[in-house]
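Severity: low
Component: inverse-folding endpoint
Summary: output formatting inconsistent between runs
Steps to reproduce: submit the following structure tokens with default settings.
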């Protein structure tokens, strides 16, 4: 398997469906690396530990993280499975950004941004990342989020290991 295929498989398994390969995750989303490799092999997904390490190291969005001794792995964010990343709340910058496409704008302006099936809504602190995220579905439209105001009004923010800003929702009045 190439690194792109391994990354897509890891995203699916570690974020959304570990039961597909009977992979246990702990309460914080960590999986044993040897178990992951074995269960992938048993289920027809053949890659080595070296290929796994290369995939994690070279992933452009740093979607995955190893623990210090590389015996456990987890997705950095984006889970639909019920886990706790155990991130402390942090103060966000005054403005964060969210990339979307024009067809969603009317609904976003009415109801705000929602986490949908994920555990958190993802925001970026730079325009290029937001633009790249939005462009996955077409011509991107960048929303400016008044995250500083949200924080002062009691909304919690977290920052994942790979720098993605996480929150539960963005009401429409905070979207510029």
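Observed output (run 2 of 3):
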């Amino acid at each position: 398997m190439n690194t792109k295929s391994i990354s897509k498989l890891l995203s699916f398994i570690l974020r959304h469906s570990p039961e597909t390969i009977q992979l246990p995750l702990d309460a914080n989303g960590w999986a044993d690396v040897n178990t992951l490799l074995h269960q992938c092999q048993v289920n027809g997904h053949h890659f080595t530990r070296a290929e796994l390490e290369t995939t994690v190291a070279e992933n452009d969005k740093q979607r995955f993280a190893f623990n210090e001794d590389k015996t456990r792995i987890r997705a950095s964010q984006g889970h639909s499975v019920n886990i706790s990343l155990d991130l402390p709340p942090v103060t966000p910058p005054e403005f964060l950004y969210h990339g979307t496409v024009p067809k969603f704008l009317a609904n976003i302006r009415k109801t705000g941004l929602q986490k949908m099936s994920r555990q958190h809504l993802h925001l970026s602190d730079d325009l290029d990342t937001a633009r790249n995220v939005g462009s996955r579905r077409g011509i991107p439209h960048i929303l400016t989020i008044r995250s500083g105001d949200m924080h002062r009004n009691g909304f919690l923010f977290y920052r994942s290991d790979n720098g993605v800003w996480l929150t539960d929702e963005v009401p429409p009045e905070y979207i510029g």
